[in-house]
Amino acid sequence: MPAPTLAGGRRSSSFLFCLALSLMVPLMNSSAPTPLYPFYKEQFDLSALDLTLIFGAYGIGVLIALVAMARIAGNLSDLRRLFVPASLLVLVGALAFAQGTSLGPLCAARLLAGLGSGVMTAAVNVALVRFNPGHNDKLPALVATLAMVSGLALGPLVSGAALQLELRPLASPFWLIAALGLASAVATLILWPSRAASDAAAPTLESTRPTSLRQALRGIGLPFHLCAWSVFFSWSFAACVFVIGPQVAQQVFGLQDPGVFGYVICAYLLIAGMSQFYCQRLDARQALLSGWLCQCLTLLILLLACYSQALYLALPGLAIGGYAYGALFVGNARLVNQLAPRHSHGKLIAYFYATVYLFNATPVPMGLLVDAYGIVTASNVALGLFLVIGLGLFALARRTRFAAR
């Protein structure tokens, strides 16, 4: 029996909008601290390593939640049992981060927020598929992509504006995020489909024995792993930009207004979002290779920019990097869907994202490098290392045939 659509087009559209807003809020929460990291460093006497630990705590929470949700999200008849706890975790995490004044509380708040973001991502994505007006196959992915891109871009925009206007920049962005999260959660629960519609849309249990992860991984070959590690590489570079980038902008390129860096990151993420939409039209392998070409070009331009301390090179380099971010994600994600066998698709997708989300640990050695050798040397060494590894992975991707076995 097909899942029923929601009664009433206007109510259905409002419900989808609220779901999208509920997904957008935790993504805002994830990116909002980006322009604030130098401020935290000065106000609370934190090291570069401390900043990377704050960033990584959020990612650990997301990773734990996604791994747990891979087992249960699709089998729940009432998704509100995930949605409500996720909303509370996002709310508490944002409010706690606004009150944090030292490394421990800030990391704990980010861990809570990451857990909420992971559970919310799973709950909303399943809900978008389950309550799909008109059974439009492209609608859930489109709504989720728009929500995530908007959230990632709005976070640095809000905190950058708070910095420039001196509106309690360490607290007010997170108060706003908490308020938006609470409002979207209440509205979504009010508009939630009736119990009858929820029960009818819930999945039926399959009688087939589930495949273990070890069985699913057996025989998938190099292409699947290459896809996972390609996105890991791309997101690792972006993570270093988010955490260490504000210091590089100040000390290497002389960009003294930290709020401006928030706008730069907002533009970077918007370009990444537009890239994802554009690359949907391309062949998956074509999108992957174009992303790798632009990623390596970005690293080369930024390496030259840091060496010459030329801001006019760094800005177009980041713009090209925004395209690479989107293209590599779209190309690899589509290839993974093609490569994963139907009988173990869910577990392999969970493995793919678990591998990718290890990127949150990458800024930690970067932080150690900055503390030991300074921001200039650390930036040049890191960009050079990224470029060498990127060229190797690009060459491997060009030689690999991405065909399902």
UniProtKB/TrEMBL annotation:
The membrane-spanning stretches of this chain are 46-70, 82-102, 108-129, 141-162, 174-192, 222-248, 260-279, 291-312, 318-336, 348-366, 372-397
Q: Which domain of life is it from?
A: Bacteria
A Gene Ontology cellular-component term: plasma membrane
Q: Where in the cell is it found?
A: Cell membrane
GO terms assigned for molecular function: transmembrane transporter activity
Stretches assigned to the Major facilitator superfamily (MFS) profile domain: 15-401
* Gene3D superfamilies found in the cross-reference section: MFS general substrate transporter like domains
Instruction: Quote the InterPro entries the UniProt record gives.
Output: MFS, MFS_dom, MFS_trans_sf, MFS_Transporters
Check the UniProt entry and state the signal peptide residues, or none.
none
Q: What is this protein called?
A: Membrane protein
* Organism (species): Pseudomonas chlororaphis
Q: What does the record give as the organism's lineage?
A: Bacteria, Pseudomonadati, Pseudomonadota, Gammaproteobacteria, Pseudomonadales
